[in-house]
Design goal:
Blueprint lengths: L28 H11 L3 H16 L15 E8 L7 E3 L4 E6 L5 H12 L6 H15 L3 E7 L4 E7 L6 E2 L7 E3 L1 H6 L4 H9 L5 H33 L5 H20 L4 H45 L18 H54 L3 H68 L3 E10 L1 H11 L7 H10 L2 H10 L2 H8 L3 H14 L2 H5 L3 E10 L2 E4 L5 H12 L7 E4 L7 H15 L5 E4 L4 H5 L4 E7 L4 E7 L4 H11 L3 H13 L3
Parallel strand pairs: 3-12, 3-13, 7-11, 11-12
Antiparallel strand pairs: 1-2, 1-4, 4-5, 5-6, 8-9, 9-10, 13-14
Length: 684
């Protein structure tokens, strides 16, 4: 928007005086309001202009994000190039926009193309695939462009067929789009009901981000635990022989003492051998340390060098295409890759130095072992069998020294594992806190909706009501285990939470698990062993989602939405959908399965109340919606068989809009007059 000088401060008597300081080098609040009065006369848009201006003042003139971290914007303009609706170009009003027309003229296609262009989500998994196919079929090889505005700024969003995501000039909040089938079937889907409720939850994007961060942290620490456990297992190999070796050393020393008593010069030779043996043991320990260090350094060197060798550099840029967007990044990138290569070479040098030092120690140890053999031969000549005892004692003492060195490392790994498990448990607790907060917000929304729609409709939330994801994670984790896991998964999901399962894995308490899940102990033991060996991160982070229940008062009893007729389900879902008061709401033919009495009373009342707070775009065949709903814009669609196009795009009171509604929705003036005469004649 061009920069304009700040308007003079309005007098104190002006109701907008409070907002005047909100903009520097931007239109004043009164200017914005004046423009909006001329444009649409909409009180809602004027309030929004003032609110936007004031919000920018609070954050230093920047764009004010919505609670979700995106812009609270209306759809101002929709343009379509290519396909069935080629040439479509409509500027929408900020209140109620109604799409009318005969069947097959493109009303639903307009709505699905808006969803496609803005990547607005579907509310049932089945509808998602159909929506994408519909949009791409209608668009052919074309593109959709949408202009969205928060009154002061405009965001342009474009998406073409085949593009994974829309291209946008700024942040925007996606509208809520409901197809005819979604309104009809959403109540039958646990996931659909949950997504519908989540549309009302403030801070949902922030909670989702926090949840994703916690899940990533848990997965990361599980990988660290797995690596540490594998390392510990390798280091601990043979430690269980320490007791036996120490007993063997005691027995060999006792035999050596007996041999000393039978020869006067044997004691001196054994003392000499003991000194050489101690040196050999110390050298073996040092060699083990150097070997492990060399292996670790070499792993770093290989990993870094592999990444460097796999790097193909930054993509080329043709100077004919203009200024290089990576002109500063290219040299910095090349420098970092060179540094990574140099670092790999330094790690490789460290590994080489450690290997060389180990070989030097080995040569010295071999020389001392030759010396020890010579001394043992002399001992054997003095007393028969003494040399064999000395050799066995040397071997046992050397092995014990190496094992003791590794046991210290194992103790360090055990301490690290304790810290890692503590960190894992803290992150699991953080994840549970995020999910508990989301449940609390969902519960608050459910209570608010129930209050607003009472007594006809009731909404409740049950904690831990959907086990599908947990069950799927367990099934995937047990695949390939050789166990018949179908009934096992059912037993576990109903009796053991993911967090409890982790504790059973850590403690290997298969007895308690068997008792709680009512499964045989041998199966519980095999289960824990398999999960410990193959990892349980996916199981632990699996979400046991909340279950949303929606009920309609039928007589004196509430009936669950899943047990209602199609018309009753639509009544429940549409009533809830229309409670959205801020985000743009787009609905395709909401009147299907609903009777005119309900539309003329409940639906129209909700539409009139809602349009003062947010934009509505509705396609319909029911004249009550544009007429009784006081539509701000009526768009009549028509078709020549090959293309759909706009026939009328006017305000409700415009004669063209009146004719369109009369002819398309009422069957013409004569039919409308005949019905009116019939009602007058038979008035009770």
């Amino acid at each position: 928007m061009p920069t304009r000088k700040r308007s003079p401060t309005p007098p104190r008597s002006s109701p907008l005086a409070f907002f005047e300081p909100c903009l520097e080098a931007e239109p004043s609040v009164e200017e914005v309001a004046s423009v909006e009065v001329k444009r649409s006369g909409s009180p809602a848009r004027i309030r929004k202009a003032a609110s936007t201006a004031f919000s920018r003042h609070l954050i230093g003139g920047r764009r004010a994000p919505s609670p979700e971290g995106t812009e609270d914007v209306d759809i101002e303009r929709l343009q379509i190039e290519g396909g069935f609706l080629d040439g479509f170009d409509v500027k929408f009003a900020d209140g109620l926009n109604v799409l009318i027309g005969a069947r097959g003229t493109g009303k639903t296609s307009v709505i699905e193309l808006i969803r496609f262009a803005l990547a607005a989500r579907n509310h049932t998994s089945e509808a998602g695939e159909r929506s994408a196919e519909h949009a791409e079929a209608v668009l052919a090889d074309g593109s959709v462009t949408i202009e969205m505005s928060d009154v002061i700024d405009t965001v342009t969003v474009t998406r073409a067929t085949g593009e994974d995501q829309p291209q946008a000039s700024g942040d925007y909040e996606k509208p809520l789009v409901f197809s005819q089938t979604e309104i009809e079937n959403l109540g039958l889907s646990e996931g659909g009901r949950l997504r519908l409720l989540d549309g009302f939850v403030s801070g949902g994007a922030k909670l989702a981000s926090e949840e994703a961060s916690a899940v990533a942290g848990i997965r990361s620490v599980f990988k660290e635990i797995a690596a540490a456990e594998s390392d510990r297992a390798n280091l601990a190999s043979g430690l269980d022989t320490l007791s036996a070796l120490n007993e063997q050393i005691k027995a060999l020393k006792a035999q050596a003492v007996k041999h000393q008593a039978s020869s006067a010069d044997l004691a001196g030779k054994q003392k000499q051998l003991a000194a050489v043996t101690e040196s050999i043991s110390a050298s073996a320990v040092r060699e083990g340390v150097l070997e492990r260090f060399a292996g670790s350094a070499q792993e770093w060197a290989d990993a870094l060098m592999e990444r460097v060798e796999d790097d193909f550099g930054v993509e080329d840029w043709d100077p004919l295409d203009g200024d290089d967007p990576l002109v500063e990044a290219r040299p910095a990138y090349a420098k970092l890759v060179a540094e990574a290569k140099a670092l790999a070479q330094r790690f490789d040098a460290l590994a080489g130095k450690a290997t060389s030092d180990r070989e030097t120690l080995m040569q010295a140890r071999i020389a001392r072992e030759n010396q020890a053999r010579s001394v043992r031969a002399e001992i054997e000549q003095s007393v028969a069998g003494a040399g064999t005892v000395s050799r066995q004692l040397t071997q046992a003492q050397t092995e014990v020294a190496q094992l003791m060195s590794r046991r210290k490392i194992v103790e360090e790994r055990d301490h690290r594992l304790t810290l890692l498990r503590t960190r894992r448990d803290e992150r699991i607790k953080t994840l549970d806190t995020v999910r508990s907060e989301r449940f609390a917000r969902r519960q608050a929304v459910a209570k608010s909706l129930s209050k607003a729609l009472s007594p006809q409709i009731r909404v409740t939330v049950e904690r831990y009501g959907q086990y599908a994801e947990y069950s799927k994670a367990l099934t995937e984790a047990l695949r390939g285990s050789g166990m018949r896991y179908t009934d096992l998964v059912t037993a576990l999901t109903q009796s053991v939470s993911p967090q409890e399962l982790v504790r059973f894995i850590d403690s290997n308490d298969f007895v308690s698990l068997a008792d709680i899940a009512s499964i045989p102990k041998d199966r519980a033991a095999r289960l824990l062993g398999h999960l410990r060996e193959n990892g349980a991160a996916d199981v632990v982070v699996a979400s046991i989602e909340d279950n949303v229940r929606m009920s309609l008062l039928d007589g004196v009893d509430y009936k669950d939405v899943e047990n209602l007729s199609a018309g009753q389900r639509c009544t429940v879902i549409l009533s809830i959908v229309l409670q959205h008061t801020s985000r743009t709401l787009i609905i395709d033919q909401p009147e299907d399965h609903l009777d005119n009495a309900y539309i003329a009373t409940t639906v129209i009342k909700a539409i009139r109340n809602r349009k003062a707070h947010g934009q509505l775009i509705i396609s319909t065949h029911n004249a009550n919606i544009p007429v009784l709903g006081s539509a701000d814009l009526v768009v009549e669609m028509t078709s020549d068989g090959r293309n759909g196009y706009v026939q009328v795009c006017e305000q409700l009171t415009n004669p063209k809009a009146v004719d369109a509604i009369t002819n398309v929705m009422e069957g013409g003036r004569e039919a409308f007059a005949n019905r009116a005469a019939f009602y007058d004649e038979h008035e009770l």
